[in-house]
Design a protein that fits this description.
7 helices, alpha/beta, SET_dom, Beta-clip-like, SETD9, 270 residues, 6-stranded mixed β-sheet, SET_dom_sf, SET domain containing 9
Length: 270
């Protein structure tokens, strides 16, 4: 049983991935610094998120910003289908979690409807954001969902255990009056933001080349407060003096319905 879990776990376990990818440079994307991880401009990422988030807000029929997980849990069970329809109408495609086509890889992410053009923001990597100096040891134990950014910032995308509790606590802490500043629904089977499934995208291999890549994205101060409730990330510390870090996945080529998403890792070249 442990071996079966490891064969699934290893596809996202960073030390195993780095060791194995280092033997195959075709699965690595080399950059010289953080600014060069940009496949598309940050402004283009912002425009995509704003278009989707505004459509999601409208689809809720004028509910007050901040009416969130507790209320949404009482909505009809087809609500998640409504949100996927909104995604399709806004961006022209849908992505969903399904069993991976890779043997022993557990869950993967598939394009289930529509067409993803090259250079599109196709998913977001949710989770608690830790600065390089902040403690994450307990949360990282047997956790295959810790993503390391180029500058050492970590994003814990685990939706279970301690990680789940930490995210909920930090999200509640950062509420601004009636406004929520992050989305906790990605911790459930029906994320309110249908892009918030990026932690389940498996890594590429020789047989399954990458069709998406990670891109770091700092949320600008101008991002509307009423739309921040759809951001699936929150800072671990309330004293963080920098913009909220998000990680998005950007398509490297056109992707059609039925295809699974596979990502590559970048490596710093000095």
């Amino acid at each position: 049983m442990y071996f079966e879990k490891w064969r699934s776990y290893r596809h996202r376990f960073v030390p195993w991935v780095v060791f194995n990818l280092s033997k195959n440079e075709k699965t690595l994307r080399q950059v010289t610094d953080r600014t060069e991880d940009k496949v598309i401009p940050d402004e283009q990422v912002s425009q995509t998120l704003l278009r989707l988030f505004r459509a999601l807000l409208r689809s809720r029929g004028g509910l007050l910003p901040g009416v969130h997980t507790n209320f949404l849990s009482r909505l009809p069970r087809h609500q998640d289908q409504i949100e996927r329809d909104v995604l399709f109408q806004s961006l022209g495609f849908c992505v969903e979690r399904r069993p991976s086509s890779l043997p022993f890889a557990g869950t993967g992410v598939f394009v289930t409807r529509g067409f993803v053009p090259e250079g599109a923001t196709v998913a977001m990597y949710p989770g608690t954001v830790y600065q390089p100096y902040e403690p994450i040891l307990l949360q990282s134990i047997r956790n295959p969902f810790v993503f390391r950014c180029i500058d050492g910032v970590l994003v814990d995308g685990n939706d279970k255990g301690i990680s789940r509790m930490v995210f909920r606590s930090c999200s509640g802490r950062d509420r601004m009056g009636p406004y929520l500043t992050s989305d906790t629904s990605w911790l459930t089977d029906s994320p309110q933001n249908p892009l918030a499934v990026g932690q389940y995208v498996n890594n590429c291999s020789n047989e399954r080349p990458a069709n998406v890549c990670y891109q770091e994205y700092d949320v600008p101060d101008s991002f509307p407060i009423e739309l921040r409730q759809y951001l699936p990330n929150v800072n671990y510390s309330p004293c963080t003096q920098r913009p909220l870090r998000c990680v998005v996945l950007v398509s490297l080529r056109d992707i059609r319905a039925g295809e699974e998403l596979f990502s590559n890792y970048y490596t710093i070249v000095r």
